[in-house]
Write a structure and sequence with these properties.
The protein is α/β, with parallel strands linked by helices. The protein has 2 domains: 73 residues, Hypothetical PUA domain-like, domain 1 (Ribosomal Protein L25, Chain P, Beta Barrel); 174 residues, 3-Layer(aba) Sandwich (Alpha/beta knot). The protein is built from 9 helices and 12 strands. A hairpin with a 3-residue loop joins strand 4 and strand 5. It is elongated, with a radius of gyration of 20 Å.
Length: 262
Protein backbone atom coordinates (compact mmCIF):
# COMPACT_ATOMS: atom_id res chain seq x y z
CA UNK A 1 0.00 0.00 0.00
CA UNK A 2 1.41 3.37 -0.98
CA UNK A 3 1.65 5.94 1.78
CA UNK A 4 2.38 9.58 1.02
CA UNK A 5 2.01 12.97 2.64
CA UNK A 6 -0.68 15.43 1.65
CA UNK A 7 1.18 17.28 -1.10
CA UNK A 8 0.06 20.44 -2.84
CA UNK A 9 -0.69 18.36 -5.93
CA UNK A 10 -2.96 16.06 -3.94
CA UNK A 11 -4.76 19.00 -2.34
CA UNK A 12 -5.49 20.33 -5.81
CA UNK A 13 -7.47 17.24 -6.81
CA UNK A 14 -11.28 17.37 -6.47
CA UNK A 15 -12.63 15.11 -3.74
CA UNK A 16 -15.58 12.74 -3.89
CA UNK A 17 -17.14 10.45 -1.30
CA UNK A 18 -17.55 6.69 -1.43
CA UNK A 19 -18.74 4.09 1.09
CA UNK A 20 -16.15 2.73 3.50
CA UNK A 21 -14.17 -0.46 2.76
CA UNK A 22 -13.94 0.31 -0.97
CA UNK A 23 -10.49 1.89 -1.06
CA UNK A 24 -8.35 -1.05 -2.16
CA UNK A 25 -5.07 -0.46 -4.00
CA UNK A 26 -5.16 -1.91 -7.50
CA UNK A 27 -8.91 -2.35 -7.41
CA UNK A 28 -11.72 -0.53 -9.15
CA UNK A 29 -14.38 1.60 -7.53
CA UNK A 30 -17.80 2.25 -9.01
CA UNK A 31 -19.29 5.60 -8.10
CA UNK A 32 -23.01 6.03 -8.69
CA UNK A 33 -25.89 8.26 -7.70
CA UNK A 34 -25.35 11.91 -6.79
CA UNK A 35 -21.57 11.59 -6.64
CA UNK A 36 -21.44 10.17 -10.18
CA UNK A 37 -23.62 13.00 -11.46
CA UNK A 38 -21.38 15.53 -9.79
CA UNK A 39 -18.18 13.88 -10.99
CA UNK A 40 -19.15 13.29 -14.60
CA UNK A 41 -21.72 16.06 -14.95
CA UNK A 42 -21.11 19.24 -12.98
CA UNK A 43 -17.33 18.77 -12.84
CA UNK A 44 -17.16 17.32 -16.36
CA UNK A 45 -14.30 15.02 -15.48
CA UNK A 46 -13.36 12.43 -18.05
CA UNK A 47 -11.23 9.31 -18.54
CA UNK A 48 -7.67 9.84 -17.38
CA UNK A 49 -8.48 12.56 -14.84
CA UNK A 50 -7.34 11.96 -11.29
CA UNK A 51 -9.41 12.66 -8.18
CA UNK A 52 -9.39 12.12 -4.44
CA UNK A 53 -11.78 9.57 -2.98
CA UNK A 54 -12.65 9.73 0.72
CA UNK A 55 -14.72 7.44 2.93
CA UNK A 56 -15.30 10.10 5.60
CA UNK A 57 -13.67 7.95 8.27
CA UNK A 58 -10.02 8.79 7.76
CA UNK A 59 -9.04 7.02 4.55
CA UNK A 60 -8.33 8.94 1.32
CA UNK A 61 -7.12 7.58 -2.00
CA UNK A 62 -5.90 8.90 -5.32
CA UNK A 63 -7.83 7.37 -8.20
CA UNK A 64 -7.93 7.69 -11.97
CA UNK A 65 -11.15 7.68 -13.98
CA UNK A 66 -11.31 4.77 -16.41
CA UNK A 67 -14.86 5.16 -17.68
CA UNK A 68 -17.67 7.70 -17.38
CA UNK A 69 -21.15 6.31 -18.00
CA UNK A 70 -24.60 7.87 -17.82
CA UNK A 71 -25.31 6.63 -14.31
CA UNK A 72 -21.95 5.56 -12.94
CA UNK A 73 -18.25 6.33 -13.03
CA UNK A 74 -15.52 3.68 -12.76
CA UNK A 75 -12.18 4.57 -11.23
CA UNK A 76 -8.95 2.71 -10.62
CA UNK A 77 -7.33 3.18 -7.22
CA UNK A 78 -3.72 4.30 -7.64
CA UNK A 79 -2.68 4.99 -4.08
CA UNK A 80 -4.25 4.86 -0.63
CA UNK A 81 -2.98 7.30 1.97
CA UNK A 82 -2.31 6.31 5.53
CA UNK A 83 -5.41 6.47 7.69
CA UNK A 84 -5.44 9.74 9.61
CA UNK A 85 -7.79 11.86 11.66
CA UNK A 86 -7.88 15.58 11.01
CA UNK A 87 -10.82 16.50 13.25
CA UNK A 88 -10.57 18.64 16.37
CA UNK A 89 -11.39 16.53 19.47
CA UNK A 90 -14.25 18.89 20.28
CA UNK A 91 -17.95 18.24 20.79
CA UNK A 92 -20.21 21.22 20.10
CA UNK A 93 -23.45 21.04 22.06
CA UNK A 94 -25.61 23.44 20.07
CA UNK A 95 -29.14 24.42 20.99
CA UNK A 96 -31.54 23.72 18.15
CA UNK A 97 -32.59 26.98 16.53
CA UNK A 98 -34.47 27.78 13.32
CA UNK A 99 -33.57 24.99 10.94
CA UNK A 100 -32.10 27.15 8.15
CA UNK A 101 -29.74 28.78 10.63
CA UNK A 102 -28.92 25.44 12.29
CA UNK A 103 -28.09 24.08 8.82
CA UNK A 104 -25.63 26.93 8.35
CA UNK A 105 -23.99 26.18 11.68
CA UNK A 106 -23.67 22.48 10.83
CA UNK A 107 -22.01 23.24 7.49
CA UNK A 108 -19.50 25.68 8.95
CA UNK A 109 -18.68 23.64 12.05
CA UNK A 110 -18.00 20.55 9.95
CA UNK A 111 -15.93 22.64 7.54
CA UNK A 112 -13.79 23.78 10.49
CA UNK A 113 -13.52 20.12 11.49
CA UNK A 114 -15.09 19.59 14.91
CA UNK A 115 -15.40 15.92 15.80
CA UNK A 116 -19.03 15.85 16.94
CA UNK A 117 -22.12 18.04 17.02
CA UNK A 118 -24.75 17.36 19.64
CA UNK A 119 -28.10 19.05 18.87
CA UNK A 120 -29.71 20.14 22.15
CA UNK A 121 -33.36 20.92 22.81
CA UNK A 122 -33.45 23.61 25.50
CA UNK A 123 -36.28 25.35 27.31
CA UNK A 124 -36.01 28.31 24.93
CA UNK A 125 -35.42 26.44 21.68
CA UNK A 126 -38.81 27.67 20.39
CA UNK A 127 -39.61 24.45 18.56
CA UNK A 128 -43.15 23.65 17.54
CA UNK A 129 -44.60 20.18 17.93
CA UNK A 130 -44.09 19.51 14.23
CA UNK A 131 -40.47 20.69 14.47
CA UNK A 132 -39.75 18.22 17.26
CA UNK A 133 -41.28 15.38 15.23
CA UNK A 134 -39.01 16.30 12.32
CA UNK A 135 -35.78 16.24 14.33
CA UNK A 136 -34.88 12.63 13.56
CA UNK A 137 -35.36 13.30 9.84
CA UNK A 138 -33.28 16.46 10.10
CA UNK A 139 -30.41 14.46 11.59
CA UNK A 140 -30.04 12.66 8.26
CA UNK A 141 -29.93 15.99 6.46
CA UNK A 142 -27.42 17.40 8.94
CA UNK A 143 -25.14 14.39 8.51
CA UNK A 144 -25.39 14.87 4.76
CA UNK A 145 -24.29 18.49 5.18
CA UNK A 146 -21.26 17.26 7.12
CA UNK A 147 -20.22 15.00 4.26
CA UNK A 148 -20.73 17.82 1.75
CA UNK A 149 -18.46 20.03 3.86
CA UNK A 150 -15.88 17.24 3.95
CA UNK A 151 -15.84 17.24 0.15
CA UNK A 152 -15.46 21.00 -0.04
CA UNK A 153 -12.74 21.21 2.62
CA UNK A 154 -10.95 18.08 1.36
CA UNK A 155 -10.78 16.64 4.83
CA UNK A 156 -10.22 13.07 5.94
CA UNK A 157 -12.82 12.54 8.67
CA UNK A 158 -16.39 13.81 8.62
CA UNK A 159 -18.02 15.53 11.58
CA UNK A 160 -20.58 13.23 13.16
CA UNK A 161 -24.07 14.34 14.20
CA UNK A 162 -25.50 12.87 17.38
CA UNK A 163 -29.21 12.36 17.96
CA UNK A 164 -30.97 15.37 19.55
CA UNK A 165 -31.18 15.34 23.35
CA UNK A 166 -32.39 17.58 26.14
CA UNK A 167 -29.64 19.52 27.90
CA UNK A 168 -29.40 17.19 30.89
CA UNK A 169 -28.97 14.13 28.66
CA UNK A 170 -26.58 15.95 26.32
CA UNK A 171 -24.12 17.03 29.00
CA UNK A 172 -24.17 13.46 30.29
CA UNK A 173 -22.55 12.33 27.02
CA UNK A 174 -19.43 14.47 27.48
CA UNK A 175 -18.38 13.43 30.98
CA UNK A 176 -14.99 12.36 29.60
CA UNK A 177 -14.20 15.84 28.25
CA UNK A 178 -11.15 17.37 29.91
CA UNK A 179 -12.28 20.90 29.16
CA UNK A 180 -15.95 21.92 29.33
CA UNK A 181 -17.03 25.46 28.48
CA UNK A 182 -20.42 27.17 28.16
CA UNK A 183 -20.70 30.21 25.90
CA UNK A 184 -23.33 32.39 27.49
CA UNK A 185 -25.45 35.01 25.77
CA UNK A 186 -24.79 37.74 28.30
CA UNK A 187 -22.45 40.58 27.43
CA UNK A 188 -19.10 40.86 29.12
CA UNK A 189 -17.30 38.27 31.13
CA UNK A 190 -13.98 36.69 30.26
CA UNK A 191 -13.69 36.05 26.53
CA UNK A 192 -13.40 32.46 25.31
CA UNK A 193 -9.79 32.71 24.17
CA UNK A 194 -8.70 34.36 27.42
CA UNK A 195 -10.64 31.81 29.47
CA UNK A 196 -9.09 28.86 27.64
CA UNK A 197 -5.55 30.21 27.68
CA UNK A 198 -5.85 31.00 31.37
CA UNK A 199 -7.06 27.50 32.12
CA UNK A 200 -4.64 25.83 29.68
CA UNK A 201 -7.28 24.20 27.49
CA UNK A 202 -6.87 20.47 27.06
CA UNK A 203 -8.57 18.02 24.76
CA UNK A 204 -10.99 16.34 24.32
CA UNK A 205 -13.19 19.35 24.91
CA UNK A 206 -16.88 20.24 24.94
CA UNK A 207 -18.44 23.60 24.14
CA UNK A 208 -22.12 24.34 24.75
CA UNK A 209 -24.04 27.18 23.09
CA UNK A 210 -27.54 28.23 24.09
CA UNK A 211 -30.44 29.56 22.01
CA UNK A 212 -31.39 33.19 21.53
CA UNK A 213 -32.41 34.43 24.96
CA UNK A 214 -29.83 32.17 26.57
CA UNK A 215 -30.23 29.29 28.98
CA UNK A 216 -32.81 29.32 31.73
CA UNK A 217 -31.66 29.61 35.34
CA UNK A 218 -32.26 25.90 35.83
CA UNK A 219 -30.18 25.03 32.78
CA UNK A 220 -27.32 27.26 33.95
CA UNK A 221 -27.36 25.40 37.25
CA UNK A 222 -27.16 22.08 35.39
CA UNK A 223 -24.14 23.27 33.43
CA UNK A 224 -22.40 24.51 36.54
CA UNK A 225 -23.04 21.26 38.39
CA UNK A 226 -21.67 19.33 35.40
CA UNK A 227 -18.38 21.22 35.60
CA UNK A 228 -18.81 23.66 32.71
CA UNK A 229 -16.98 26.94 33.08
CA UNK A 230 -18.56 30.04 31.57
CA UNK A 231 -17.04 32.31 28.94
CA UNK A 232 -18.36 35.60 27.63
CA UNK A 233 -18.83 36.75 24.06
CA UNK A 234 -17.38 40.22 24.29
CA UNK A 235 -19.28 43.49 23.93
CA UNK A 236 -21.81 42.17 21.39
CA UNK A 237 -24.55 39.59 21.63
CA UNK A 238 -24.02 36.97 18.94
CA UNK A 239 -26.56 34.72 17.32
CA UNK A 240 -26.26 31.08 18.33
CA UNK A 241 -24.84 29.95 15.00
CA UNK A 242 -22.28 32.78 15.02
CA UNK A 243 -21.24 31.97 18.58
CA UNK A 244 -20.79 28.30 17.65
CA UNK A 245 -18.61 29.10 14.63
CA UNK A 246 -16.59 31.60 16.65
CA UNK A 247 -16.10 29.08 19.46
CA UNK A 248 -15.05 26.29 17.11
CA UNK A 249 -12.52 28.59 15.43
CA UNK A 250 -10.92 29.47 18.79
CA UNK A 251 -10.65 25.81 19.79
CA UNK A 252 -9.28 24.97 16.34
CA UNK A 253 -6.49 27.51 16.70
CA UNK A 254 -5.60 26.32 20.20
CA UNK A 255 -5.56 22.70 19.03
CA UNK A 256 -3.27 23.60 16.14
CA UNK A 257 -0.91 25.39 18.52
CA UNK A 258 -0.95 22.41 20.85
CA UNK A 259 0.15 20.19 17.96
CA UNK A 260 3.01 22.54 17.10
CA UNK A 261 4.19 22.57 20.71
CA UNK A 262 4.20 18.80 21.12
Amino acid sequence: MGVVGVSDQLLGLPQFLIPKDQLLVGGNVVVSGKEALHLGGARRLRKGHRVRLADGRGRVAVAEITRVGKTEVILSILEVLAVRSDVIPLTILLSVIRFERFDLAISKLSEIGVADIQPVVTERSRLSGSDIKRLDVRVQRWQGLCFESLKQSKGFVATMIRRPRCLKEAIGTVTDASCKVALLAEKGGGGLFHTLKKGKAVFPAALVIGPEGGFSGKEKDLLKEAGFISAGLGSRILRSETAAIYGAAVFSELFACKGEDS
